Amino acid sequence: MRVCFFDIDGTLISSGGAGQNAFAHVFGTLFGVDQISTDVSFAGRSDRAIALDLLRAHGVEPSDENWHRFHEAYVDRLPSSLHACDGTVLPGVTTLIERLMATDDVELGLLTGNVVRGAEAKLVHYGLWHHFEFGGYGDVHTTRDDIARSAVDAASRHLNSAPNSDSRFAVIGDTVHDVRCARAIGAYAVAVPTGLTPMDELRAAAPDLTVETLEDSATLVAWLTE
Ligand SMILES: [Mg+2]
């Protein structure tokens, strides 16, 4: 089993702030929050963890009920936020996906803090969703390590085989959280500074490979296919 797990925001796409825009809109309409707290970090974290932190930060009970209300309103709002914000598919992504899909025995998955319907909305908007048949998402888990483990479980179900000593996983992401969660599943960590985290900060997390953009894909493809 050889699986390349991709992060979404800052790695495959920049949504131009559509996610945060939708978060802010929903916190305004559902919870009366004029401006969401800047003390809560978004990058590399699960939607569930971000939403629960924001609820606490604004004195709203971080209950399952409030999470579910948030989730429904957020995924309803996201498509219009995506249209309103000026985002893009990041450099090299389309070619890298094509190269990996043309490679025998390499499967593509997602490993993202987005809720699954949020991931779908973002990647449908940018024409990439159909490439990904399984993944780990931020609906249930609040830590990225747990999302990584659920992504491996999803790959095993999809491919109908359990990981073994020949299995190779790579996690490609733009934050230190992506690098760290690769360790939780014994994966090769590829860091790319196309999100908000500068290269020196990514290097300090000791990924196996850093690339300036995903245009620089040869090393990754070679490692996965050797
Ligand atoms: Mg990211």
CATH architecture of the largest domain: 3-Layer(aba) Sandwich
CATH domain class name of the largest domain: Alpha Beta
User: What's the overall geometry?
Assistant: globular
pLDDT < 50 stretches = none
- Count of discrete domains: 2
CATH homologous superfamily annotation of the largest domain: HAD superfamily/HAD-like
Structural description of this entry:
With 226 residues, the protein is an alpha/beta fold. It folds into 2 domains: 2-15 and 87-225, Rossmann fold, CATH 3.40.50.1000; 18-84. It contains 9 helices and 8 strands. A 6-stranded parallel sheet has the order 5-4-1-6-7-8, sandwiched between helices. Helix 1 (18-31) crosses helix 3 (64-84) and helix 6 (144-159) crosses helix 7. 42% of the residues are buried. The model has no long low-confidence stretch (mean pLDDT 94). Magnesium ion is lined by residues 7, 9-11, 44, 173-175, 195.
Could you name the key traits of this structure?
globular, 8 strands, 6-stranded parallel β-sheet, Rossmann fold, about 230 residues, alpha/beta
Topology:
Elements: E1 2-6, E2 13-14, H1 18-31, H2 47-57, H3 64-84, E3 88-89, H4 93-101, E4 106-111, H5 116-125, E5 135-136, H6 144-159, E6 168-173, H7 176-184, E7 188-191, H8 199-204, E8 209-210, H9 218-225
Parallel strand pairs: 1-4, 1-6, 4-5, 6-7, 7-8
Antiparallel strand pairs: 2-3
Helix pairs in contact: 1-3, 3-5, 6-7
Bound molecules: magnesium ion.
Q: What's the short story on this structure?
A:
The chain is built from 9 helices and 8 strands.
